[in-house]
Amino acid sequence: MTRDEPAERIRTDGGTAQGADEVALDPWGSSTIADYRKLFEEFGIEEFDEVLDEVPNPHYLMRRGVIFGHRDYRPVLEAMRDGDDFAVLSGFMPTGDPHIGHKLVFDEIIWHQQQGGDAYGLIADMEAHSARGIDWEEINEHSRDYLLSLIALGFDTEEGELYRQSDNDRLQRLAFELGGKANFSEFEGIYGFDGETNISHMQSVVTQMADILYPQLDEPQPTVIPVGPDQDPHVRFARDLTTRMRFFKVTEAFASFELDDTERLVVAAAYDAREEYAEDPDMPRCGEAADWVADADLDAHGVLVAESVRDSAVEKLENAGMEPLRRRIRFFARQATDEAFEALIEDIEGEKRRYDQHIDAFELDVAEAEELAREVEANHGGYGFIPPSSIYHRFMTGLTGGKMSSSIPASHISLLDDPEDGYDKVKSATTGGRDTAEEQRELGGEADKCPVYELYAYLLTGDDDEFAKEVYDECVNGERLCGGCKEQAATLMREFLEDHQEKREEAKDVLDSLDIDLETERRGVAAEH
């Protein structure tokens, strides 16, 4: 955005550099994300802008691009718009004071609760003890501070649930079941664990998987997990485990033989193109489809696969010969009880064919089939989990540059800081200003690289987009100098901290009335790393 192009919509890039060669997502690391665009390419995170218009009453963090990405958020949005059940959950590792970076997650939980979602906030105390080596006395203190700030910011404890991992028996039982679907090679591949990783750290990962699915224990419902991008490995792993826990695997099929995911793309293209080659397009034969696939320009049909995939699809179609090629939904009895399998067969309406370990249905689409399988599972002793969704927010830049870190006091503002200290930290912060006031007036400031502007966009201007836009435009147009800008930001930060800490005092009675043990006398020493 240049000086001649005032912002139509206030955005922020988090003050990060562009063009990094690699992106490594480590849930316990301290690395920054140098190029958020690479997350779309390398990890399949989708751009939030693509769903923004579908969000009822979007939060300002969404409007300003602070929430930049998502995984499968549409089921949550659909439930939100239709007034159906959905949930939001996120957690906090109590390794230090809650700071303004954590406020992003607090706000996201609270906003979803205000839109009608079942809200859950958890203290990841097992993770803090096993992965970070924090002792239980310190964990107790920090846990209380996180929960007080969450309540002070607007979390409704009467409508939502707060808990500690270590005190939640239902969570632990779920974690045990999920552990039966995970193996060590995955811990190596996803998290880089090795022979030196302590077992408690591994257990804490499975517990986090249970956290993510916890809102669905009583009933399956779309669930969103608001996190920073470094937590994406947890979300992906949880989605995988969700699939493995299901009674039935639901896939699209076209004949009696089985296809892998890439082969299915090829055969689906052949089915869609049957008018081109079939003697009877209403009853195309597998052999006819094999000939078409062998010669077709699959790229032109939007199917980009290796030649080996084409060859394997052709072989399976040729072997099926005169068998009709016909689209159907296939239900595999992955781990369903006999009772559940029989119930599924009974509930499928229309034409169907039963086999030993699967059943084909000819009058259902994939979405209908998934919902039916989930209902049958939930009614016959299974969980019926829906794969969890997630949204991702940018990291806040530290006041001294780099990533905001609890271990570097000058880089962040704690929600417990004395308001005057908060004022002083902002006044001392790095800016995106030019070397001289003259250059600033001539060239304009670099708001997109400025930690102080981030304070406005992420927190200080609240829901007032016009105020945020005014600060941005005045900066990049050279009308706003850093001294006055920091003075205004510092004053607003002091006012925010004063107000927040008053509300924290009011929240103490609310927290004390809840059934949460914040003075646990657990014994044990910190895990070795």
TrEMBL record:
Ranges of biased composition (kind: Basic and acidic residues): 1-12
EC number: 6.1.1.2
Pfam families reported for this sequence: tRNA-synt_1b
Family: Belongs to the class-I aminoacyl-tRNA synthetase family.
Primary site of residence: cytoplasm
Name of the molecule in the record: Tryptophan--tRNA ligase
First-tier enzyme category under EC: ligase
Organism: Haloferax larsenii
GN (gene name): trpS
NCBIfam families to which the protein is assigned, alphabetical: PRK12285.1-3, PRK12285.1-5
Motif 'HIGH' region location, chain numbering: 94-102
